[in-house]
Amino acid sequence: MSNSAQIGVTGLAVMGRNLARNFARNGYTVALHNRTAARTHALVEEFGHEGDFVSTETAKEFVEALERPRRLMIMVKAGEPTDAVIQEFAPLLEPGDMIIDGGNAHFEDTRRRERDLRDQGIHFVGTGVSGGEEGALNGPSIMPGGSKESYASLGPMLEKISAKAPDGSPCVTHCGPDGAGHFVKMVHNGIEYADMQLIGEAYQLLRDVAGYSPAQIADIFRTWNTGRLDSYLIEITAEVLSHVDAATGKPFVDVVQDRAEQKGTGRWTVQIALDLGVPVSGIAEAVFARSLSGHADLRAASRELAGPKAKPLGDSEAGAFADRVEQALYASKIVSYTQGFHEISAGSDQYDWDIDLGAVSAIWRGGCIIRAAFLDRIRAAYDARPDLPSLLSDETFAQEIAAAQDDWREVLVAATRQGVPAPGFSAALAYYDALRADRLPAALTQGQRDFFGAHTYRRVDREGSFHTLWGGDRSEVEA
């Protein structure tokens, strides 16, 4: 078999199949492999007219079909299945070849795999791919890690198949060494969780407090999508809310069980943030909200607990309330991105990745699930100040948050009075207020820790660590 294929894809479920087709549509010869050969043949039979494919049935045939340096893309389930594929193919590869993992792998697994394969001279490229099956086919946002050498060979191909931002630039960048790409994709998904939760809370407030129907809320979201909230998630929210269930004639959203599922990347974002000591309270609340939604028995047992029932506003008040919700949603969204970029920055420092936050925001402008118009402004903020400590430190975003202040707080007052849960909005505002506070109760916390555990504390008026002898005359000693 001639080694004519520029890239190979193994694992031809929906994402793998569509990425293979995307490469072929862009002029690359693509070698195909799947554990079940029938899936390989079916792809060629149905989509062979879209480009040049090389169908293979064995691992050896697959590797032999690839030109040097070989580029072998794995599109299988994360975890043990990925390790199994690596173990199957790595012995057949040579120094300089590369294995590209396009699944949602945990970045620590990617770091381990990159380290192990590096010893064999093989480049392992952990690559985040966002955009779902449509993005995989028509242009995703791509977040590769790995060595600079591997990106020099692979990067131009990824740039060609990626989504293009409104200014035409490809939505792909080399994020950094080893697990950087999968780390960035993990945080992307965490922000996605928060974004979706905030949109969900806005919907529920508009429905339960303002009294709008799903169809009316769909129109409100369409209007929002023409302004600063312009984004893919706002766009599809309008589509979901306007959809009517054919079987019942009811709004689609009313026939779907209110139990949200998750695949794990949101949880990882929160877990790693805890390890790094980075507060991502908005993302955490989104993860916990999904978890709570799934506890049907607990919710059923608690449904008669005391509390107010929402009473919809009159028509004259509803419109003004909707405007306030838009302000609260936008302000909370800025906080979510602030927390996400803080975690990426902390991860970059921890693992010495040197991730360019401006470049990350630039590649999220197209293809990915959280693509939004205001990402261009985030990119500009980080390009102007690479050391920007927080998006909230950017003058423009700070001004917008200041303008949203009163409405943001009024929405939460209304939610509390009406008994409508808004954990995402609440967490975002609490984070914002904590950042701007002159003093936090952490001083009391540290005093408590010193009392029961002699954990020491630092003073505001002199250097050093101190401990109070609480059991005696309460004198202070330097630790």
List descriptors.
479 residues; 8% strand
Describe the structure.
There is one protein chain. It contains 20 helices and 10 strands. Helix 15 packs across helix 18. Strand 9 and strand 10 form a beta hairpin. The protein is 55% helix and 8% strand. The longest helix has 37 residues. It is globular and about 75 Å long.
Mean pLDDT, to the nearest integer, reads 95
Task: Give the strand order, joined by hyphens, for the main sheet.
Answer: 3-2-1-4-5-6-7
Figure out the total of helices. Answer: 20
The level of helicity is 40-55%
Given the C-alpha coordinates, what overall shape results? globular
Terminal residue distance? 72 Å
**What is the beta-strand fraction?**
5-15%
Topology, please?
Layout: E1 7-10, H1 14-25, E2 30-33, H2 37-47, E3 53-55, H3 59-64, E4 71-74, H4 80-89, E5 98-101, H5 107-118, E6 123-130, H6 132-138, E7 141-144, H7 148-161, H8 180-208, H9 214-224, H10 232-242, H11 252-255, H12 265-276, H13 281-293, H14 296-302, H15 315-351, H16 357-363, H17 375-384, H18 395-418, H19 423-436, H20 442-453, E8 457-458, E9 465-468, E10 476-478
Parallel strand pairs: 1-2, 1-4, 2-3, 4-5, 5-6
Antiparallel strand pairs: 6-7, 8-9, 9-10
Helix pairs in contact: 1-6, 8-12, 8-13, 8-15, 9-10, 12-13, 13-19, 15-18, 15-19, 16-17
